[in-house]
Each structure stands twice: as structure tokens, then as C-alpha cells.
Amino acid sequence: IAFLDGDGFPRMAPCWFLWSEEAFHTTSEPDKYHVKCLSANSRGSFCVEVADVTPSSRSNKQVKGIGRFEIVREGITEITSELWTKYLGTTKADGLSDNGRIVLRLRPDSISAHGSEFSLKRE
Predict the structure, then answer these.
(1) How far apart (Å, rounded) are the C-alpha atoms in residues 93 and 26?
(2) How many structural domains are present in the chain?
(3) Chain centroid to CA 13
(4) Which tops the pLDDT comparison, 78 or 46?
């Protein structure tokens, strides 16, 4: 995700993501720097990139969206479980709990995608 710090400079934080219900979701702890910055200024973006590498070439496909992040504190068990299943293969693992966590949700105002053979933009 990308966000603005307190001085207005762009910052980025890598994250696990889930696209669900026309929104980009990730989870974090509420005291993290990016969450504090998004609490003060919700404007941000996401970029998901997939690289296709062969012995003779490399191409990248990207989906990007911009908008305002919402910090969701209640009812996040389903999203956190889906994220853990996507990345870890399980909804339960030692040390994982959604207690005290938040979900960052961005319903993009605009979204674009491009890659080696395609390009689209929705505003």
C-alpha cells in the first residue's frame, strides 16, 4: 500500500492483500506507522504486481487503485481468516489472532490495470 506521512511525503508498506466486495483489504496492528498515518490522512493507493518470467523474457502485470482507506475495527474475523488461508493455507496458526488487529479497506475511486497485452482504466 502507499500512503502519506505527516509531512505529506509518500510512503509504502508491503502487505498481504485480499480483493473482496469491490474493495482491497489488508490487516495490520493499530499501532503501526502506516495505520497512524492513514488515521490522520486516509488518502492512499495499492498496487498488485505479478511477474511472468521465462528463460527469454520477463513481463509484469499490475492492478492499481487509489482512494481513501477505511480503518475497520469490528467484524474483521472473516477477512483476517481469508487472508491467512490465502497466504498460509490455514485460518488458524500458532500466534495468529485477529484480537487487537484492524483491517484497512480501500474501495478505489479509480482503478487501472496493465501488462504485456492489456490495459484498462475505470474512474
Answers:
(1) 18
(2) 1
(3) 9
(4) 46
